[in-house]
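dumping this here so i dont lose it
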């Protein structure tokens, strides 16, 4: 495929033939286009001499990259493409290179709830007979499955996966749109029919540096990626929802609102909670609907209705959508029932790793629990440090028993991370070893109590000092319950 067919124009008007795309210099083969992208530590242009030696037929970079590698490029036969936004250009080129995508594509962004909404949307589609997948934090799941290393992968990985899914007969796909992925234009080549906004709270300030920059990245899904004839599904319960709704109106996009207030298209009227789930009553176009949700947590109703809104926005009949909501199952690592003690006390695992998510998870569990709420939680290293005391305060405000432990300390001193959390909840118990903390949390449970293990959710490893050790919260919870209740493992 030529550079011009990929939407790229090289200096000097050269229209080189391209044999493939690469962002990893080690993967470059003769004739390939290498995207030399700016990075947080190193500019990809540093590797241009290496890829030219490997036979790269073209290089895509920004003006800074062209300056860095000017010497190597001067005598090279490779075509040079210089643009202000090389990430966006790569995303569009990857879409053209791989070509095929599932016919119906939606994306969801927000601080919390992305995985649940994407998964519920896929489950709704599949219950209605559509071959569907969801892509994100838990990988690619559904009618075709594969692992992913990032919530929103790089454009080459993303479009390779979308093309493979389409080749396997997948017609519907729901994907998570992370703020990093949006800021780095990874979704720019995805053809969306609809996009959703869940909420906006503190996270990733280590990357975005300010709330304004973080929100601007999220908003990019609606201002840049979703076309003007797309539909925006908004959870109006969030204070930032009004800004997303205004973007939709200004661009002429259709708007489908979810919430509890007057005027919402999908309006929650009432919820009734019990030990295994909840009954939900809502309205659609003025008509009352009542469904059973086998999901723990009041916030799940909002996630479910946002997913229902995406399904409706992509052409599914509303009555058919509402008729399958009782078939939705818990998303792995999201308010997942991990184990139950012989005395009836339940242990839940949730990915809550922000102050708002911890508060939301604990408040959502409370109506389902007759006794005490116990929480085991920590905070990740090499991430936003300001949220650590806020997480401690959120847990102290909404749980009865607190155990502060390690999450993924990464390169930081785990004790310092725990100390920052404990500063806001001095009455908590500190147990650095996460397995021991979970065991002690389970040991606290009496009849009617519940334990929330927060932070790692679906993750199967714990990162300490650059090493990923096998660790699964659900597995550890099951082992703890078995050990304490004398059950065989």
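and the seq i came up w/
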């Amino acid at each position: 495929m030529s550079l011009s067919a990929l939407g790229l124009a090289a200096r000097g008007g050269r229209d080189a033939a391209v044999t493939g795309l690469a962002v990893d210099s080690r993967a470059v083969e003769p004739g390939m286009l290498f995207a030399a992208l700016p990075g947080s530590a190193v500019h990809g242009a540093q590797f241009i001499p290496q890829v030219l030696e490997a036979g790269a037929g073209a290089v895509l970079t920004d003006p800074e990259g062209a300056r860095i590698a000017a010497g190597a490029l001067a005598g090279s036969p490779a075509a040079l493409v210089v643009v202000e936004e090389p990430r966006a250009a790569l995303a569009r080129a990857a879409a053209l290179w791989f070509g095929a995508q599932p016919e119906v594509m939606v994306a969801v962004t927000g601080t919390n709830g992305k995985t649940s909404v994407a998964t519920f949307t896929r489950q709704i589609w599949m219950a209605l007979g559509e071959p569907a997948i969801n892509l994100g934090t838990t990988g690619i799941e559904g009618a075709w499955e594969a692992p992913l290393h990032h919530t929103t992968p790089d454009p080459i990985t993303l479009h390779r996966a979308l093309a493979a899914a389409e080749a396997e007969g997948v017609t519907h796909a729901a994907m998570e749109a992370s703020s990093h992925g949006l800021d780095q234009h990874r979704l720019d080549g995805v053809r969306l029919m609809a996009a959703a906004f869940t909420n906006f709270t503190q996270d990733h300030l280590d990357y975005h540096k300010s709330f304004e920059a973080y929100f601007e990245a999220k908003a990019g899904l609606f201002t840049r990626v979703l076309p003007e004839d797309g539909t925006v599904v908004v959870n109006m319960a969030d204070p930032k929802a009004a800004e997303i709704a205004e973007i939709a109106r200004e661009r002429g996009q259709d708007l489908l609102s979810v919430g509890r207030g007057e005027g919402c298209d999908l309006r929650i009227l009432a919820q009734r909670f019990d030990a295994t789930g909840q009954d939900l009553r809502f309205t659609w176009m003025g008509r009352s609907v009542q469904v059973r949700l086998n999901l723990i947590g009041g916030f799940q109703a909002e996630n479910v209705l946002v997913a229902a809104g995406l399904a409706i926005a992509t052409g599914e009949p509303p009555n058919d959508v509402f008729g399958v909501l009782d078939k939705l199952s818990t998303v792995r690592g999201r308010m997942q029932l991990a184990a139950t003690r012989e005395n009836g006390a339940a242990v839940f695992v949730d990915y809550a790793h922000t102050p708002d998510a911890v508060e939301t998870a604990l408040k959502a569990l409370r109506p389902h629990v007759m006794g005490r709420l116990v929480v085991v939680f920590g905070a990740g290293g090499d991430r936003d440090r300001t949220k650590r005391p806020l997480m401690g305060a959120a847990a102290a405000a909404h749980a009865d028993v607190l155990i502060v432990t390690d999450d993924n300390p990464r390169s930081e001193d785990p004790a310092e991370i725990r100390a920052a959390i404990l500063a806001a909840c001095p009455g908590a118990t500190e147990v650095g070893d996460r397995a021991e903390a979970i065991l002690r949390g389970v040991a606290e449970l009496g009849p009617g109590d519940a334990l929330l293990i927060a932070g790692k959710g679906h993750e199967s490893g714990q990162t300490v000092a650059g090493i990923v050790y096998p660790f699964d919260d659900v597995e550890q919870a099951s082992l703890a319950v078995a050990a304490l209740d004398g059950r065989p493992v």
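The radius of gyration is 24 Å.
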